[in-house]
Amino acid sequence: MPIATFSEKIAHTLSTIKYGENPPELYEPIRYMMDLGGKRIRPLLTVLAHHLFEDEVDKVLMPAAGVEVFHNFTLMHDDIMDQAPLRRGQETVHEKWNANTAILSGDVMLVKAYELFFGVQPVHLPVVLKLFSRCAAEVCEGQQLDMNFETRTDVSIPEYLKMITLKTAVLLGFALELGAVLGNASEEDRKNLQEFGIKTGIAFQLRDDLLDVYGNAAEFGKLVGGDILAGKKTFLLLTAMEDANEMHRTELKNWLGKTVADPEEKVKAVTAIYDLLEVKAKTETRINTYFHEALQHLDKVNAPLERKEYLRALALSLMERTS
Amino acid sequence: MPIATFSEKIAHTLSTIKYGENPPELYEPIRYMMDLGGKRIRPLLTVLAHHLFEDEVDKVLMPAAGVEVFHNFTLMHDDIMDQAPLRRGQETVHEKWNANTAILSGDVMLVKAYELFFGVQPVHLPVVLKLFSRCAAEVCEGQQLDMNFETRTDVSIPEYLKMITLKTAVLLGFALELGAVLGNASEEDRKNLQEFGIKTGIAFQLRDDLLDVYGNAAEFGKLVGGDILAGKKTFLLLTAMEDANEMHRTELKNWLGKTVADPEEKVKAVTAIYDLLEVKAKTETRINTYFHEALQHLDKVNAPLERKEYLRALALSLMERTS
């Protein structure tokens, strides 16, 4: 089965979900958010993980959709907290409606995400719900750490890696473990798939940090150096701060604390320090290490090679993206 | 067993819940909110409903606590939306910390509420979770309707009753039904207990509307006429608007739209119109009707009279409160 077939099944499933109708002010923002699209990577991970153990994937489509609805719930609430004006190039929910609507629609979205798991076989229900709830709490912990980092000046690289693990990677891990649990995989296979997801997720986020500075701006659809201008503590910045000598560290701090008339000048200056400290190569090395470790976990999974190839290819596509 | 024993068991259970530790910014507001107290009516309803069918109530304490955690989650998020400075006489979470913290701690609280249901017997898990999720979505719908009403001028009494049913009453209904389900009650007993809760909840909310204007101010711990000053569409106001002649309706609208130097004058003037239209007696009649219907549903439940007496007494105490 070509991977597009799996994606089509997911798209179809998402299009059939009935979130609710009344009051429309509550449910319309959910449909708006879900219709903004996205690559639907998380439900695809669930389906592909399940396909390692069973031919029939239809029965995991609803819980897979639950992962996507949960992901979009986190985006809706994160966008309020980050005061983000845009999401996938469109107005965010709190901009198009208001913050109260985004809070409340998000709340009901989390409830709907839970509901999408209720159709799993009763024997799987307790473990699926426990894994999901734990993951959901961890994603919130990651978002809280991310917010804490905004006002801290002493964030270490291990702390940063912990934050992105919670905020981004554990959900990829859960998406994969979910597919494995529902496919009656062994405990060992489940854990290897989860680790494959977590390591891929970390590599994916580091790649995101890298692309913000070194990506193809046109393809990326964002301002180059947005993180630099926002003073965001990315892997690149933390690496630079750690490796810089006193002079360069002071220079970095000065640039980051400065309100500039010419944003391009600031991005250029900070990037020049990154270049000097070989931050790009160091980040790429770290990405490759995580990606390599991820693949080692996938290798250990007891499933047909040709089926694991779907997951390897998907992970690779996440690493090779230039935007 | 005296009712205080049930309450003590609930208080003890709530005190043992581990919400999480790190980051503290995420979990501290949950403990703060839960420690603000409250009458713990909802978990008591679960325990008392269960006690109708089984002697042993310990096994429902965790899910009963889940209802209370969910209730407090809704309060935390509602307080942001309503920009409320105080909750139970203390600073609200978004005031003490900030709105982002209240959003995110609330989110994780909803997850924790779900987790507290996971320990029920596997045979009950699917139905409990479906009923809870449906109730949770309805509570959000009620809050959205309540917000919609703020900017509407044509809210009807049936619409208002629908709103308070969703926002307040269905959770009391769920709390009772939960106890019944876990006590292996018949479908009929479950539904009668749910209706007992819903009708009691509506009566409770109407009583709340009444006390805002006609309650004992000192005991109530709030400003008398707070709803009038806020221009809130309560049962009293909607009844007055419906029953008033053209002159009084215009007078009411003028007072409600007016920014006054002397709040007491406004409350007195609106209350005078209420008095003229016998709004107090009309509201009391409606409260009594709902309360009577509630008790009829309780009467129909197949359980020992002396055990039902706990629920009757609790409902009565909610009706007789003067604050």
Automatic annotation (TrEMBL), chains A, B:
**UniProt-listed CDD domains:** Trans_IPPS_HT
Give the matching InterPro entries. Isoprenoid_synthase_dom_sf (IPR008949), Polyprenyl_synt (IPR000092), Polyprenyl_synt_CS (IPR033749)
UniProt keyword terms in alphabetical order: Magnesium, Metal-binding, Transferase
Name the coenzymes or cofactors required: Mg(2+)
Q: What Pfam families does its record include?
A: polyprenyl_synt
Record-linked PROSITE patterns: POLYPRENYL_SYNTHASE_1
Entries under PANTHER family matching the protein: GERANYLGERANYL PYROPHOSPHATE SYNTHASE (PTHR12001), SHORT CHAIN ISOPRENYL DIPHOSPHATE SYNTHASE (PTHR12001:SF85)
The record's comment on protein family reads: Belongs to the FPP/GGPP synthase family.
Protein name (Swiss-Prot/TrEMBL): Polyprenyl synthetase family protein
Q: Which organism is it from?
A: Adhaeribacter terrigena
